From TrEMBL:
This is Fringe glycosyltransferase. GO terms for molecular function: glycosyltransferase activity. It comes from the Eukaryota. GO terms for cellular component: endomembrane system; membrane. Gene3D superfamilies: 3.90.550.50. Belongs to the glycosyltransferase 31 family. It is found in: Endomembrane system; Membrane. Coiled coil: none annotated. Keywords: Glycosyltransferase, Membrane, Signal-anchor, Transferase, Transmembrane, Transmembrane helix. It comes from Onchocerca flexuosa. Residues 10-169 form the Fringe-like glycosyltransferase domain. It is a single-pass membrane protein; Single-pass type II membrane protein.
Amino acid sequence: MLKYVIIFIWACHFDDDNYVNVAELVRVLKKLDPKRDWYLGRPSTMGPVGVDSIPEKATFWFATGGAGFCLSKSLLAKMSSYVRNGGFEELGEFLRLPDDVSLGYLIEHLLKVKLTVLDKFHSHLENLDEINKNDIHKQISFSAGGQPKIMKNVVRVPEEYIVEDDPQRFRSLHCFLYRKNCQR
């Protein structure tokens, strides 16, 4: 019988409506030691979140899931006893919080590992068109943007495709970042 060994040093989460600049993500992660505890991401709140619906009140930061986040192998190992066998779902139900906020509670409050804020992660909760065009290649992730019928919140890059074929501008963004690999 064949057995597969999966070796990883980082685990990153991105929503299915994110564009991930993998080259920049790899460049950033290579600079960090995965044997240390790392919780990388970007908050979307102006301050830490407070939870007072539990016996032990807590305040903590959390990385917004809509922008993506990464966890080091060391941190994942420390989290395992809390998350295995449905433990993470139970924690979220107990806290009555969304999964990204529950994760922040687990990591920052229970494990005492602080969020390392990287402004290279971008969610739909910020104005994506304010990202300087010259800095786009230095960013890790971009969310799909706001609600299309209300406001178009997209990264400002040259339009390579008509809006109907590229509503989030991700194909155009890819062409902007990787001109040689752009398939038009």
